[in-house]
Amino acid sequence: MDDAGKRKALGEFIKTQRSQLSAAELRLGGSTRRRTPGLRREEVAQLCDISVTWYTWIEQGRTVSVSAAALARIAEALHLSRAKRAYLFELSGKKDPQAQDMQSEEIPEEFLAVTGNIKAPAYLLDRHWNAVSWNRAAKTLFVGWLDQKDGSKNLLEYTYCAPEATRLISDWEQRASRLAAEFRADCGMYLDEPDIAQLVARLNSASTAFQRAWNMHDVVEKEGGERRFTHPTLGQLAYRQVNLRVANRPELKLVMLLPA
């Protein structure tokens, strides 16, 4: 979808959500008899503290620059659900000011338990690519990472900084370089956040390989495919990697390594 298409889709989405709210629900004054269902543009504009003209242009998909703060006020005024709010910001190409707070919520126990019900190596990554859950098979496979009681559980720090990773991961240089590009694609809108900025700074300081890969500014989608390992006790291993996102917590990524 091009920029004009996104602006049109954004306007239509906001208009549709406006039509689904009633003044009675929001306890707004005025007559309850209306020609069309939903709130009036003037009412939403007032709730968002923006001009009616500006709001109208947004709904019409005109070439206007809508700030993230204004979009947040629109989302709140329209009482958007978490999924709808995420969709609103995705269409706008803006970063949700509340994204960090929303995604730092505690991970439900049932999500953490998923990996234990998978026979193949599986682990769950959070927004910063820290492993928050993994099964016994993954613990056995990833020596120097998931088998360690202490130490970082970050996938990037393991790949670039742990000596075990360079020996375990076949074609390490290619895989490591791609991993940095996948991380940039996944977290590109949040690189200015303190936790992510600190992670990147640590990696730049600790690994010249990461520094080279990161300075390439390459961006690729995280995808599956063949993964090969040279395990210190199990020998040569081959898998097909499958990546899934949790539907109502899209910052969580489930990675499974199925026998090839």
UniProtKB/TrEMBL annotation:
Domain (HTH cro/C1-type): residue spans on this chain: 13-85
Keywords: DNA-binding
One MF annotation (Gene Ontology) recorded for this entry: DNA binding
Record keyword DNA-binding present: yes
Pfam families assigned to the protein according to its UniProt record, in alphabetical order: HTH_31, MLTR_LBD
InterPro entries: Cro/C1-type_HTH (IPR001387), Lambda_DNA-bd_dom_sf (IPR010982), MLTR_LBD (IPR041413)
SUPFAM superfamilies with a match to the protein in the record: lambda repressor-like DNA-binding domains
Gene3D superfamilies registered for this protein in UniProt: 3.30.450.180, lambda repressor-like DNA-binding domains (1.10.260.40)
Keyword NAD (UniProt): no
PANTHER family: BLL4672 PROTEIN (PTHR35010:SF2), BLL4672 PROTEIN-RELATED (PTHR35010)
Protein name in the entry: Putative DNA-binding protein
